[in-house]
Amino acid sequence: MYKLLADKHLTWLEKLLGDSWEIDRFENPEELHQKAEDADALLIRTVTPVNRTTFPKFPEKLKCVVTATAGFDHVDTEWLKENDIAFSPASGCNARSVGEYVLFSMLYAYDFNLAVLRTKKVGLVGYGKTGRETARLLQKLSIPYIFTDPPLEESDPGQLNFSTLDDVLDCNIVSLHIPLTDDGNFPTKHLLSKNEFEDRSIELLINASRGGVINEKDLIRAQARNEVGRFVIDVWCNEPEFNTELRDRALIATPHVAGYSMQSKFRASLISCRFLTNHFKTMLNVVDTGYAIRSLKASTGLAKNASRIHPMFDMDEKMRSFNKSVRAEKFLELRNTTELRHEFPYFRLLNLDPADQETAKALRFEINE
Fold it and tell me: Active-site residues: which are they?
């Protein structure tokens, strides 16, 4: 039997892994280090950094570290390699959820008027799994877009119609879908700073990737100079100590939850457990999630039912009430205790206003016509 030490907030593990695994849980760094000595594998989230500082010496028994998140800038992968420890992220687990957050933000910003949105051009910075899912939804809604991704273009030249970062930043709407890196050929830390904002006229900027890819002070300055009109911020530098001035200026401000949904959490656990069972040669159980379709009366249209469909609006309201002294504690509380939403295909919209049916179908809501 193998022993897995897992973050207490991760679900489905016992059902997916079965009898070949003993699962223990940790809640904080102290508990993590107390229990890690006996673990064969460690399963974490973004709130648990694994690097040379947090683990100057790994327990001898530990052979595998997995993060149940798509991003992994909280993990020093080179340090794991040096210690012969296998690693895997849950790539793509939250792509659908992030895409929905981004598209719903765009719709909200333009009063759910699809005709107006179709006159805009969207620029995607990054064309990995979340960028492609966002592009797929844009395509379904017939909203024009272009994208840039220099690392992908270098590794796969000629396969896709890449644009330059300059061209993407000249679009009406810009959405970020990149990891946070500060080394290599294409570092993304502060990718958008003073020089990139200068002389632009971005109507709407959405960041649901990583906080550090934008210089927050320069974004505030860019808005003051009308180089950026409105922005939606889900990710922040120095989380959970978020920038309250940035929050106050944002159209929507949320506590790093764009990728959060019932379905993305299940996918994260499934991808993580699949890697663990492959690595340790154990069986992965087949699990029926049993998610039921939720019916929602929507005769008044998408705009008036937006807060019933997506929690970003309620979270935004709560985020604005947090003063500086309690912002970190409240940020984490809001992130960890808000009930997870269902993704759009798990909603049945009843008697939806015909004017919104095209939009809703493209976003894969079930429509009762």
Answer: 210, 239, 256
